[in-house]
Amino acid sequence: MEENYKKTTEKEILAVSFGTSYNDSREKTIGAIELELIKEYPDYEVCRAFTSQVIIDKLQKRDGTKINNVTEALEEAFSKGVKELIIQPTHLLNGYEYMDLADEVKKYKDKFEKLSLAKPLLTDESDFVKVADAIIKMTEVYNKYDTAVCFMGHGTGAAANDVYEKLQYMLFERGYKNYYVGTVEAKPDIDDLIKCVKKGSYGEVVLLPLMIVAGDHANNDMAGNDKESWKKRFEEEGYKVTCILNGLGENSDIRKIFTEHTYSAIRSFKD
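Predicted structure:
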């Protein structure tokens, strides 16, 4: 969905993503989530905003593609006369990006009759169960005794970083002892992951992004040819490595969780 879904309405869902300059992955993930929202909530106009100004500027310069930042999108909704506005972030967790978004949205609480900020992917206990189910289902083909399945999360300095350990624990509890969750910018990091994997009797490692979009981190930090990439680090340890460059947004079960969070935000107006 390169442009906002145009519909004359006083009700809008603003899908807010960090953004990515990888066009194919963007439409398979962020675009797919937005199309899911369009399908589930036909009475609402669905619009797009990115939080990364760097990516916004890059897309404008490289492709001539104009994407609003959050402030621009909120101002546009207000100027159009939107009365009911749902903000649906495509963030994985309640980290600094989500908190910054919440602060920005608060500034506009008096400009709309109804304004609600929906939850990110991993919020409630049921979300963790559903995400665990989804990633197990989508990786079942790689679940072999001699294979370690490793997920790369982004990581955050915020308290919400514990979602990775929680998801790890849930996978282990379900018997998936060969599934490991790490992060690229926090803990557990690649060193922690390698230590865990080396305790097992694995010959192969499968790497997947635990991110909505398979963007820069997935293509470079995970699957790149730099000596510090996860792929190269595991290869140096003697493992055969396979990289799967699919963002979570490509998964229909993951997209459904976002639409459910949108529904909860809509219901909040009636409670």
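Summary: The two ends are 32 Å apart (CA to CA).
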